[in-house]
Amino acid sequence: MTAPLLDVQGLGISVQGARANLVDDMSFTLHAGQTLCIVGESGCGKSLTALALMGLLASPPLAVTGGRALFAGQDLLAMPRAELRDIRGDRMAMIFQEPMSSLNPAMKIGEQIAESVRRHKHVGYEPARARALEMLERVRIPAAAQRLDEYPYQLSGGMRQRVMIAMALANDPALLIADEPTTALDVTIQAQILDLMRTLQAETGAAMIMITHDLGVVAEMADQVAVMYAGRIVESGPTEAIFDDPQHPYTIGLMSSMPSLGAHRERLVTIPGVVPQANDMPSGCRFAGRCPFRTSACDTPPPLEDFGGGHRVACVNAPLEASRQETGT
Amino acid sequence: MTEPKPILRTHGLRREFVTAKPLFGAAQVVRAVDGVDLEIAEGETFAIVGESGCGKSTLARLLVRLIAPTGGEVWYGGTNIADLDEGAMRALRRELQFIFQDPFSSLNPRMSVGALIEEPLGAHGIGTSQERKARVAELLTRVGLRPDHADRYPHEFSGGQRQRIGIARALASGPKVVIGDEPVSALDVSIQAQVVNILEDLKEEFGLTLVIIAHDLAVIRHMADRVAVMYLGEIVETGTADALFARPRHPYTEALLAAIPIARTGARRASAHIEGDLPNPIAPPSGCRFHTRCRYATEICRTDHPRLTGSGAGQVACHHSDTLALTGLADADTDRPAAAKARFALYRDAQARKAKETTEP
Ligand SMILES: Nc1ncnc2c1ncn2[C@@H]1O[C@H](COP(=O)(O)OP(=O)(O)OP(=O)(O)O)[C@@H](O)[C@H]1O
Ligand SMILES: Nc1ncnc2c1ncn2[C@@H]1O[C@H](COP(=O)(O)OP(=O)(O)OP(=O)(O)O)[C@@H](O)[C@H]1O
Ligand code: SF4
Ligand code: SF4
Ligand SMILES: [Mg+2]
Ligand SMILES: [Mg+2]
């Protein structure tokens, strides 16, 4: 098997004044052309993970406390800032959670895309503008030539997100990180953008990390999935394994608390309680306070163990069927 | 079958907004709600769905006269509340309550939780001060909070807890109808499930009529008895949730259903999604407002405006609905693999066991 494009091992992120890491011992690999979805509820550390890889953590108060992230063999976490700046927006690009915050409101969208092309590809004004037009056409913006000279506020939310994608892909990155690219969009527009991202990824062969809290989006987009809870990966593996054979109590709880689209309307399963904060983080399994399968063995941090085929689970009591028999209930 | 008694009924309901006047020319008018006829039956959960800007919030506010209509009628029982003056409306507010989307901005940060929930009781002169305190404690317990939370302030609570406070406040005056404008949209899935369950329990317990506005179709599928689909200020289809999700009759409903990402691998073949953005609501398309995005559109759709026709069981506004065979969500699309369902059952059982242990030690 070829070496992965991105190999993250033991990534930790902390904030000043908090005892527990906000992101802890995060490990995953990603191959060219593949999509990894990172899924989890608000505050579990999805965006921080992406920002750390891009070298964009607000430090202080945030800091990387350990680990490495090999991108085509180079460690992103140990790279000098200037070198990282060259890679960012070029071989590695990001689409942010709020498109308005990453588009310059005072600059025409064509110029914004062209500027990034000029900076990284060292080409002149005309070729950069031609590339900007080509990219707007590729993300299917109608009347692209006119849109080049429009400002972000003149575009709908869906169009803005298309511009973000055009900008991110303008320099043919090997890795695209998309942080909730469709969360703010209506469902019909979301479907269009997801289609577009799939098509462009197939055309360019880029690897993608897609961050979302929507398990529906995960099922439609991912080759690999990492489920995060309170800063840690609790379960990861091929998409089929996660959806057809969920093993971690949090994954199972999350999936069964989603309302079904089918006709049967049984009462929703809930996960009682709330996510622990960095200052009252359990020392063992971070899900212990809300887990119905908790035993005394859960007081030490459970390692991610391989259940076969790259399906990894961090739960001392998985598989749950077996653990029930052992406790003799 | 006898039709259930409507508790809320609208006729030709309209609300326009005048947008900011440009430097040259006339100010423009958005017809946010444009001729809506609705009947909501007593005791049902009625859902209004549609994309951003289609007029859901405006319609919801009109139903309880939080805003006044430009035209048309809203009948609550035998009263047309569109015509009521403020004083008469204030008395009716006790029976018609509203839950807002944003638990963060809809609660006055300087009032304690107890004062917030008690306020509607005081406003309607319900009970003595002592009785009101007892009612607040009871309501807090009912929405899964503790009586001593009454002394705390909204900022001390999480999003899900704040939404429960909003629900307790809406229920305080003993309403007959509760309207929730995206009451769970801002919440994470696991917290959303808690709040959905609470809403359903309370509806049952107090015999409420619930009107739920949402853009999340799974939440609607789960909660609603009947559904109305809105597009650019108009209702384009109504029906029972079962019928509308399984056999949509309006092309826009079909498109909405096709766009839902389904949490199951291989659930969808590369689906044919509708093209294009929502048109500008200031200048909606002629004829059928959906024709610019509809793949079944013909000449008549560009010129003639289709009217909503049908009975209470189901209505549709489409020239071609009788001849179209549209695709909905089959159970096979949404069903989960057996192994996953077995795990869900295991989780359910474990949780039930744990709940039992903690209540009867
Ligand atoms: N600049 C910061 N200073 C302190 N804490 C922070 C900072 N940024 C994030 N955090 C905390 O780190 C945790 C993880 O944040 P992150 O933004 O990665 O969450 P997320 O998974 O992306 O959530 P969401 O789905 O809401 O976007 C949260 O508890 C958050 O409060
Ligand atoms: N106070 C107002 N002034 C001017 N226009 C308004 C006002 N309130 C709503 N509108 C316009 O009326 C239309 C319907 O808005 P409304 O808020 O009812 O939509 P919605 O379906 O609730 O959307 P969302 O899903 O985004 O909440 C929109 O075009 C909106 O811009
Ligand atoms: S390790 Fe224990 S507490 Fe954590 S998920 Fe597994 S059973 Fe639950
Ligand atoms: S009336 Fe015509 S354009 Fe409108 S939904 Fe029906 S087929 Fe489509
Ligand atoms: Mg985030
Ligand atoms: Mg709204």
TrEMBL record, chain A:
ABC transporter domain mapped to chain residues: 8-255
GO CC terms: plasma membrane
Keyword terms, alphabetized: ATP-binding, Cell membrane, Membrane, Nucleotide-binding, Transport
Recorded family membership: Belongs to the ABC transporter superfamily.
UniProt cross-references to PANTHER family, sorted A to Z: DIPEPTIDE TRANSPORT ATP-BINDING PROTEIN DPPD, OLIGOPEPTIDE TRANSPORT ATP-BINDING PROTEIN APPD
Cellular localisation: Cell inner membrane
Gene Ontology biological process terms from the UniProt entry: peptide transport; transmembrane transport
Species per Swiss-Prot/TrEMBL record: Roseovarius lutimaris
Membrane topology, from the record: Peripheral membrane protein
UniProt entry tagged with the keyword Amino-acid biosynthesis: no
InterPro entries: AAA+_ATPase, ABC_Ni/Peptide_Import, ABC_transporter-like_ATP-bd, ABC_transporter-like_CS, Oligopep_ABC_C, P-loop_NTPase
Name of the featured protein: Oligopeptide/dipeptide ABC transporter, ATP-binding protein, C-terminal domain-containing protein
Top-level taxon: Bacteria
CDD domains: ABC_NikE_OppD_transporters (cd03257)
First-listed, main subcellular location of the protein, grouped into a coarse class: membrane
Entry-linked NCBIfam families: oligo_HPY (TIGR01727)
MF-aspect GO terms: ATP binding; ATP hydrolysis activity
Automatic annotation (TrEMBL), chain B:
Keywords (A to Z) from UniProt: ATP-binding, Nucleotide-binding, Transport
InterPro entries hit by this protein: AAA+_ATPase, ABC_transp_ATP-bind, ABC_transporter-like_ATP-bd, ABC_transporter-like_CS, Oligopep_ABC_C, P-loop_NTPase
One Gene Ontology cellular component annotation held by this UniProt entry: plasma membrane
One GO process term, biological-process aspect: peptide transport
Database matches in Pfam families: ABC_tran, oligo_HPY
Domain ABC transporter: 13-257
Entry's localization field: Cell inner membrane
PROSITE patterns: ABC_TRANSPORTER_1, ABC_TRANSPORTER_2
Membrane topology recorded in Swiss-Prot or TrEMBL: Peripheral membrane protein
CDD domains: ABC_NikE_OppD_transporters
SUPFAM superfamilies the UniProt entry points to: P-loop containing nucleoside triphosphate hydrolases
Gene Ontology molecular-function annotations: ATP binding; ATP hydrolysis activity
NCBIfam families reported in the protein's UniProt record: oligo_HPY, PRK11308.1
Family: Belongs to the ABC transporter superfamily.
Stated name of the protein: Oligopeptide/dipeptide ABC transporter, ATP-binding protein, C-terminal domain-containing protein
